[in-house]
Amino acid sequence: MNAVGRSRAGYTAIPGASGGVLLQQRAPSGEYGRRVAAFTIAVLVISELALHGANSSGYGAAAAMANLCFAFAMFAFGRINPLFWRRTALSFAFLAAAAGWAAFGITFTRAEATAPDLFDGAMLLLLSQIGLFIAAAALGYRRNAVRQTLTWLVVAGGAYVVLLLVLRETGMLTELGFLDTRGQARFAATIGNWNAAGAALGMIALLAAGNAGDRLETLWLRRGDARTGYAAAFYLMVLFCATVLCAQTQSRLSTGLTIVALLVLLFVALGRNASRWPRAARTLALVAIGTGFLAALAMLAGPAILGRTSLIADDLDGRMQVLAHYGAASMQAPLWGHGLGSFAEWNQQQLQPDDAAAYWMFGAAHNVALQLAIEAGWPCVALLGIGLALPAIRIIRAAWHAGIDLPGLSALLAVALVAGCSMLDIALNVPAIAALAALLFGLCWGRALRTDLSGRGEA
C-alpha cells in the first residue's frame, strides 16, 4: 500500500520513523468548514471597514453581495441542524416581515415615493444584513465557532489599526482617496466620518479587550503556554492603539461609551475566579488598572477629546432638536414611509426657509429608528425591533443562567456600544459597521441557542 493515501475512516496514513505506517486522526470536515467560515467572515467585514466603511453606492453594493454570498454558502454547505431553524423561525419571520413591509410599501406607493430609484440598493443592504445576521447565528450555533470568529476579528482588526497608524503618519490617506486628517485635530480613519470611525474603533478595542482578558485569565490559572502570552500581548496592543485612535476621533459619545464598556469588562474579569484572591485585592486591581489605562489614554489622546467637552451641553441640546424635528417629520407618512434609501433626497425636498440653514447638510437622521420610520414607516420599525428583541432576550437569559466568557461579553458590549451610538449618531448607517454589529449579534444569538440546548455555556 502507499505510505500516504489509504487510511481507515477518520485517519490519515503517514510514514513512521522505523519504516512503518502511523495512523494520524484527521479533524472532522465540519471543523475545517467552521475554521474557514470564521476566517472568511472576519476578514470580509474588517475589509469592508477599510474600504470607506462600504459607505457608497458602489462599495455598499459590493459589500452587500459579498455578505449575501457568505450567507448563502453558510446555508448551503454549513450542515445546519434542523433544530436551529425551528429555534430561529419566529425571529426570522419578523425580520422577513420587516423587509416585506418595506418592499410592499414601495410597490403600492411608488408614485408617491421620494426616490424610488434608490430603493433597490437600500433593500439589497437590508437583506444582506438580515442574511448575515442569520448566517452568523448558524455559525455561532456550532461548537467553538464564536471563539474562533472573535479571534480572527481581533487579528484582522489589529491589522486594520496598524494600517491606520501607518497611513496617518505617512500622509497616504489622501493619495488613497480617504479623508486626510494628518495634522488635524480629528481622525476619521478610512470611513470618512469621525463619529462612525469612533464607533468602529471602539468595537475593535472591546473585542481585543475580551480576548486579552481571556488569555490573561488562562495564564493566571496556569493553563497556558508561551503562545498564550504572545497572544495576550498582541491583543493588549490592539486594545490600546484602537482606544487611542477612538479618542482621537473626538467622538465624545463613542469614546465615552467605549471607556464605560471597558470598565464593565474589567470589573467582570476581576470578579471571575473570586475564590483565588480577596475582594480588597480585586478592588485595588480594578482601581489601579482602570486609573493607569485612563491616565495613559489621557496623555496620548486627552487634549483631542477634552477640547470638545465644553461643547457637550450645546451639542446635546442641538441634537435633541434634530431628533424632535425628524420625529415630527416621521408622522408625515407613518404607515409606509417615503421609501428605503430616500432620506437624503426627502430631507432636501422638505427644507423650508426657516430651517434650511440647520438641516440642509443632513444625510441621515442621526437616529436609526427615526430614519427607518421616515423611509419605511413605523410598522417596519416595530417588526424589525421585535425580530431583534427576541434574540436579545434569549442571549440575556442564556448568559444569566449559564454564564458568559470574556470574549462573548466583549462582543455583546460592542453591539451595545454601536446601538447606543446609533441613537444619536450615524454608526449603523455605515454598512460595514452594521455588518460587524450583525455578525457579533448573530454569533452571540447562535451560542445562546446552543447553550439553551446543552444547559451550559459553549465556547
Describe the structure.
- It is a single chain.
- This protein has a two-stranded antiparallel sheet with strand order 1-2.
- The N terminus is likely disordered.
- It has one domain.
- Helix content is about 70%, strand content about 0%.
- It is mostly helical.
- Helix 8 runs antiparallel to helix 9 and helix 13 runs antiparallel to helix 14.
- It has 16 helices and two strands.
Features of the shown structure:
about 450 residues; mainly alpha; 16 helices; 2 strands; about 0% strand; O-antigen_ligase-rel_domated; transmembrane; transmembrane helix; membrane; WaaL-like
Molecular shape: globular
Distance between the first and last residues' Cα: 41 Å
How many distinct domains? 1
Rg calc: 24 Å
- Which structural class is indicated by helix and strand composition? mainly alpha
Strand order of the largest sheet: 1-2
Specify the biggest β-sheet: 2 strands, antiparallel
The unreliable regions are 1-10, 21-27
Summarize model confidence as the mean pLDDT. 83
The topology string of helices and strands comes to EEHHHHHHHHHHHHHHHH
Report the strand count: 2
Give the helix proportion (percent range): over 70%
Quickly count the helices. Answer: 16
How much of the polypeptide forms β-strand, as a percent range?
under 5%
Organism: Sphingomonas pokkalii
GO cellular component, one term: membrane
Keywords: Membrane, Transmembrane, Transmembrane helix
Subcellular location: Membrane
